[in-house]
């Protein structure tokens, strides 16, 4: 898989992860390719400080030293990073902006989904705004203010606008975009404090071709 490098220096490597590639080794089959295993032959030892779901594309940061790993991990734990995702969702929201504040409980049911659970869920907040309405789907920007598993996917599903192509939330096969055969979720940008300089820097990952095609309904055929 082609992994685009967005930034590289002595302590920090930022890449655009392609959809279909694991961020971390698979718990059942460690031999499956994952991001670090493909990058380390060229870049040396790397530390993962956050992850993206396998079928989510976009910006992901890796540390190149143990010290940078500690500094970056602390930022993610303390929610001092700024994550922005773009998602293609089913339907046309009645709102332009919304804050989804619903407690989430992970690993529910046979399929281990994350579900809204007012009694036993953990606090979760996602800020969403419409970027473009197109036919029977919409491009939205999502800013997660907490870090629950599948947070954006579960919140958008609960709001009635599941991510296009999502096999776990909202019957992903009911809306097909030709050329997009995976989850319509892209980690668009990531802002963080550089572990060496201390400056707050932001990195953006361009849309992959399959995601970009979803922005032009006239090309769907």
In words, what does this structure look like?
The chain is α+β, with helices and mostly antiparallel strands. It has a single domain, classed as Pseudouridine synthase (2-Layer Sandwich), CATH 3.30.2350. It contains 4 helices and 12 strands, in the order E-E-H-E-E-H-E-E-E-E-E-E-H-E-E-H. It has helices at residues 35-43, 66-77, 151-158, 209-213; strands at 4-8, 12-17, 47-48, 57-63, 82-90, 97-101, 104-108, 113-116, 125-134, 137-144, 185-193, 200-204. Strands 1, 2, 3, 4, 5, 6, 9, 10, 11 and 12 form a 10-stranded mixed sheet that branches. A hairpin with a 2-residue loop joins strand 9 and strand 10. The radius of gyration is 17 Å and the shape is globular. The model has no long low-confidence stretch (mean pLDDT 92).
Distance between the termini: 27 Å
CATH fold annotation:
Pseudouridine synthase
The helix/strand series, from N terminus to C terminus, equals: EEHEEHEEEEEEHEEH
* Main sheet makeup: 10 strands, mixed
Overall form: globular
Radius of gyration: 17 Å
The overall pLDDT average reads 92
Number of helices: 4
Question: Strand tally, please?
Answer: 12
CATH class: Alpha Beta
Spans of 5+ residues with little confidence (pLDDT < 50)?
none
């Amino acid at each position: 898989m082609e992994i685009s490098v967005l930034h590289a220096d002595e302590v920090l490597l930022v890449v655009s992860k392609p959809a279909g590639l694991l961020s971390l080794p698979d718990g059942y089959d460690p031999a499956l390719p994952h991001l670090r295993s493909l990058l380390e032959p060229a870049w040396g030892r790397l530390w993962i400080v956050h992850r993206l779901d396998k079928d989510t594309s976009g910006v992901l940061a890796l540390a190149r030293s143990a010290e940078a790993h500690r500094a970056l991990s602390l930022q993610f734990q303390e929610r001092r990073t700024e994550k922005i995702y773009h998602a293609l969702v089913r339907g046309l929201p009645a709102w332009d902006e919304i804050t989804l504040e619903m407690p989430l409980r992970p690993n529910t049911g046979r399929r281990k989904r994350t579900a809204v659970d007012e009694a036993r869920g953990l606090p979760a907040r996602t800020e969403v705004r419409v970027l473009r309405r197109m036919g029977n789907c919409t491009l939205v920007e999502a800013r997660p203010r907490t870090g629950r598993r599948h947070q954006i996917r579960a919140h958008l599903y609960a709001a009635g606008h599941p991510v296009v192509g999502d096999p776990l939330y909202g019957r992903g096969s009911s809306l097909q975009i030709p050329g997009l055969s995976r989850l319509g979720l892209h980690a668009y940008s990531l802002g963080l404090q550089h572990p060496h300089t201390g400056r707050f820097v932001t990195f953006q990952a361009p849309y992959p071709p399959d995601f970009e095609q979803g922005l032009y309904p006239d090309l769907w055929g």
